[in-house]
Amino acid sequence: MNNLQCEVLIIGAGPAGLAAALAAGESRQRIVMLDDNPRPGGQIWRDGPAVTLPAIALRYRQAVEALDNFTLLSATTVVAQSGPQQLLYENAQGCGTIDYQRLILCCGARELLLPFPGWTLPGVTGAGGLQAQIKNGLSLQGARVVIAGSGPLLLAVADSVTKAGGKVILLAEQAPMTSLARFASGLWHWPAKVRQSLRLLHRRYRPNSYVLEALGDQRLTAVRVQQGAQIRMIACDRLACGFGLVANIELAMLLGCRIENAAIAVDALQQTSVANLYAAGECTGVGGSELALAEGAIAGYAASGNIVRAQALLAKRSVWQHFAAAVSQTFVLNPTLKTLGAADTFLCRCEDVPLGEIDVKTGWAPTKLHSRCGMGACQGKICAAAARHLFDWPIPQPRVPLIPARLETLALLAPHPNPLPQGEGAGTVPCSGAEVICDRVVAEEECPN
């Protein structure tokens, strides 16, 4: 067990986290950063064998790594809150606790995946999921790829697919042409985005289009696509489908932060409703890397006591907040997407729970009790976001552990941890309601002691 102490603890090493570390590092206070990826950069600056990082990503990484008051724990996950201003973490080397004076959450976001017939077939992934695989070295040489869903990410994924040797045969954007044209006409407010859009624009881009069904026996072979008033059948080898992003707010909810519009609520200096706890980046509302960098720097300066430097960045943040608002207004999801799933279409992929078993009127708790929906290894991160969009259900309260964790890690949560007795069935698990999966534990409903 390794117990650490620091003045400023940062969770997440994406653009917001790196900017926060660089800003807080100027104070000479001890800064510790935890990130679940093997290298800093987050999802947008994900490093890998098939990646050429943008110059700005390299600058931030090198600047942060040069700080002598900075420690990065990579491939490390937060398991739970283990005490006042203390978090329990786990990695391949073991587990431990970190005591902090101020905490900055830069937890990022994940893809919103909505169910449709065939979405669990091999060959079907999230749009960002396919991009992550490409960055990790996946070759798509000769593969026919359909990219579908909504948002600017689709264009970036198409660019990655082409560079990996794949052939993008359709880029289906569900937003209507009228919304896209209005968005494009206002891009001049952000010249860098005009240049980026021109570079990524794809000739296969089709507005008002979405996937109705993925087809195949053992693997994806084709998709049915609604394209305007027409339905097309398109043969393909891969389908990458994502409907925007969902803020990662589980840790913030566990720590008692106020949540608004499914994101962490913050004030002008990025402070949450909890004292000494700040948040920045996509977890406070999806807005892109430029906004994340501004928010991260403000949070870093504010958390380390440099309010003057933090306030100097408010105007810059405002510029990118307006861009984020324009994106949000443009890529509103078509209500038709809520109706694509059939009765036998899985909502919960972990536990194979189909939509036909879901009583929309009941909500999360009864659904979990009757169907195990949301009780798999991902702890509802995929299906809870989908259910919120499909059924307007509230976000479920996260449970401890936040991620599947080793028993030795969870033992640190016990008031008086003792070695587990030997023998079949011996010992207890020191957590409130859990299911043992091999040597790891995932949160579940309350169970008897």
Q: Span from first to last CA?
A: 27 Å
Q: What form results from the Cα inertia axes?
A: globular
- Helix share, percent: 25-40%
- The class by helix and strand makeup works out as alpha/beta
State the fourth-level CATH superfamily of the largest domain: FAD/NAD(P)-binding domain
Number of helices: 13
CATH topology of the largest domain: FAD/NAD(P)-binding domain
Please characterize this protein's 3D structure.
This protein is an alpha/beta fold and 449 residues long. Helix 1 packs parallel to helix 8. The longest helix is centred in the last third of the chain and has 17 residues. It starts with a strand and ends in a 6-residue tail after the last strand.
Question: What key attributes describe this structure?
Answer:
5-stranded parallel beta sheet, 28% helix, alpha/beta, 449 residues, 24 strands
Give a short summary of the structure:
The chain is of the alpha/beta class and 449 residues long.
Topology of this structure?
Blueprint: E1 4-11, H1 15-25, E2 31-34, H2 55-65, E3 70-73, E4 77-83, E5 86-91, E6 94-105, E7 109-111, E8 124-125, H3 127-135, E9 144-149, H4 153-163, E10 167-173, H5 177-185, H6 191-200, E11 205-206, E12 209-216, E13 220-227, E14 230-235, E15 238-242, E16 245-247, H7 250-254, E17 259-260, E18 263-264, E19 277-279, H8 289-303, H9 307-311, H10 314-330, E20 346-348, E21 353-354, H11 364-371, H12 383-391, E22 405-406, H13 407-410, E23 434-437, E24 440-443
Parallel strand pairs: 1-2, 1-6, 2-3, 6-19, 8-15, 9-10, 9-15, 10-11
Antiparallel strand pairs: 4-5, 5-6, 7-16, 12-13, 13-14, 17-18, 20-21, 22-24, 23-24
Domain FAD/NAD(P)-binding: 7-293
EC number: 1.-.-.-
Enzyme class: oxidoreductase
